[in-house]
Write a structure and sequence with these properties.
With about 120 residues, this protein is mainly alpha-helical. About 85% of the residues lie in helices and about 0% in strands. It has six helices and no strands. The protein has helices at about 1-25, 30-45, 50-55, 55-60, 65-80, 85-110. α2 packs across α5 (about 65-80). It starts with a helix and ends in a 6-residue tail after the last helix.
Length: about 120
Amino acid sequence: MNYIKAFIVGGLLCIIAQFFIDKTKVNPARILVSYVVLGVILTAIGIYEPLVKFAGCGATTPLTGFGYSLAKGVQKAISENGPIGIITGGLTGTAGGITCALVFGYIVSLIFKGHPK
């Protein structure tokens, strides 16, 4: 049942983003950034945490989940270190994802040659 809940919630988040990409003139990069910001806002007001508990990786895998990880990292760092946690918490909470993106992006750049448009 956990897989079904994750599939439905993650799928709905992706369908909404794809709808905006296909049916509006909004730049896809802005939609993706909006998803991260939306994840931070929904976490700050307490709405995203119950969704994560319900759907697990279906809610933490899309870009809203990255925003959730940023916000949770900041919340934890502020409670442990005070105001300096505002700066350090987001990076601590998302370090694994950022590192993977950089490492795998570098590996792909070594394997494939880019073509300018």
